[in-house]
Amino acid sequence: MKIGIVGLGLIGGSLALEFGKQGHELWGSSRSAATCQIAVDRHVVHRASPDLASLAPVDIAFICTPIPYVLPTLKTLAGILRPEAIATDVASVKGAIVTAATELWPNFVGGHPMAGTTQQGIDAAQFDLFAGCTYVITPVKQTQPEAISTLESLMQPLNLTVVTAAPEIHDAAVAWISHLPAMVSAALVTACGTPPPEELQLAQQLASSGFRDTSRVGGGNPELGTAMAQFNREALLRSLYTYRDRLDGLIQLVEAEDWSGLFELFQQARVWRVPFVE
Amino acid sequence: MKIGIVGLGLIGGSLALEFGKQGHELWGSSRSAATCQIAVDRHVVHRASPDLASLAPVDIAFICTPIPYVLPTLKTLAGILRPEAIATDVASVKGAIVTAATELWPNFVGGHPMAGTTQQGIDAAQFDLFAGCTYVITPVKQTQPEAISTLESLMQPLNLTVVTAAPEIHDAAVAWISHLPAMVSAALVTACGTPPPEELQLAQQLASSGFRDTSRVGGGNPELGTAMAQFNREALLRSLYTYRDRLDGLIQLVEAEDWSGLFELFQQARVWRVPFVE
């Protein structure tokens, strides 16, 4: 199959590596001519150009840009792709993209591979990034069944689990397990930076794995943290309001010295965490 | 030196292993006769008994029980130890212990090794648990300088860093980097357990390393989570109030769609996290 990859970073580059291994023919595109050159030199794709018009021959185009560029990229591709070509994306929010994208290109189907590392860019592209991960496909009523089955068949050999969910269910789910943790964690770090010098210095000295883990996603890429909120605002706000209620409840238990109530809350957290992490 | 260890769990057992390697003579004590037997059989201590009276000959007694048992244990030991013997503890809160303990036993000095694993009990005791960790000693005005220097000299060979801090500074610091993260993380898990079935099921399926890390300390030992709040209530409440303010500020940015403000918050989190984790 002739596959186009727009955005040759961690996800786009890694998808290209897998598709190349499967014997597909690969057209790459990146805004950066240097990245295009690297992708060709390293045999990540067979050819690459910053000019999206070069993708005219492909059967399916994967848009692997940062979230804000998905729709603008598709708008340009809509004047380039053959009418029977499929377009798809890999963005971590779907409601803000899928309906608008389907209007721009009826043969669009939304996707989201739940995979990543802390690295970014073409240098981070790697084989087996998707092994064991979940790939969410988010069709809407207008989505063509052939677009779904083509995407599924491309994913089959990648040793991952394909799941189908409505965009709004996807967005609500990732708000809970990905976007809310990032906000909670960022608020934690900015709170921990406020104590007076002597206290702050000792806190920094004593911080170990507990702080490291809880603060990790909040101390990550600011562009991504902002985009999560911007493009999944409603679902995230619902999660944030529920979280604030729970936090207030916890604070009230501590204020009231209700230690059996706090014990129950921690007990519940221990039990409820299991199905998320096993 | 003749060293007593009360509480033969992860910390007490691991301290005993290190002190034994240094050639000290070790008296162990645990409420559980079975644990005493295991500790002797495995050469963790030279002798052990559930009867605290057996510790009469020691030069220094380490109280390594759970937090609620530190003061009651010291009260009993005060009728047993020789007047020149030193008593110390390893509890993760100090204000609630050190002043009261010094009144019970003038030759008391508080301590807190910042070390641990997810394991508990004598089976978790291990060599090198303290290598590279920070051992906080928390003297008050009445603390005997000899008690501090004896504790320091015992710690020197363990390849760790000894830090001295007032109990209230210690408690404020651990509230920020240990107790607050546990509360934030527990509130996160209990919030994430609330969505309707279809959303919850997908969330559980999609949760990966971000959720795993952010939820880890909140899904831990409920006894410990409760004790942190109970015995460090004031410092924890101060941290919780600051945290709630930061969270409210973040929520307001999302509500107001102030994306440059949110970007700055994430940028600040990324920069502020560094001195805590490097």
Written overview of the protein:
The structure is a homodimer of 278-residue chains. Chain A has helices at residues 10-21, 33-41, 70-77, 95-104, 145-155, 167-192, 197-206, 209-215, 222-231, 233-255, 259-277, and strands spanning 2-6, 25-29, 47-48, 60-63, 86-89, 108-113, 134-138, 161-164. The first copy, chain A, is built from 11 helices and 8 strands. Chain A has 278 residues and is an alpha/beta fold. Chain A has an 8-stranded mixed sheet with strand order 3-2-1-4-5-6-7-8, with helices on both faces. Chain A is elongated and about 70 Å long. The interface between A and B is large, with 92 and 92 residues.
Descriptive terms for the model:
homodimer, 278 residues, alpha/beta, 8-stranded mixed β-sheet, 11 helices, 52% helix
Radius of gyration of chain A: 21 Å
Subunit arrangement of the protein: homodimer
- Based on DSSP secondary structure assignment, what is the total number of beta strands of chain A? 8
Report strand % of chain A.
5-15%
Main-sheet strand order of chain A equals: 3-2-1-4-5-6-7-8
**Largest inter-chain interface?**
A-B, 92 and 92 residues
**Overall mean confidence score, pLDDT of chain A:** 96
Q: How does the major sheet of chain A shape up?
A: 8 strands, mixed
Q: What is the number of helices of chain A? A: 11
Instruction: Describe the global form of chain A.
Output: elongated
DSSP helix fraction of chain A: 40-55%
CA distance, first residue to last residue of chain A:
36 Å
How are helices and strands ordered from N to C of chain A? EHEHEEHEHEEHEHHHHHH
Q: Enumerate the spans of chain A where pLDDT stays under 50 for 5 or more consecutive residues.
A: none
Secondary-structure class of chain A: alpha/beta
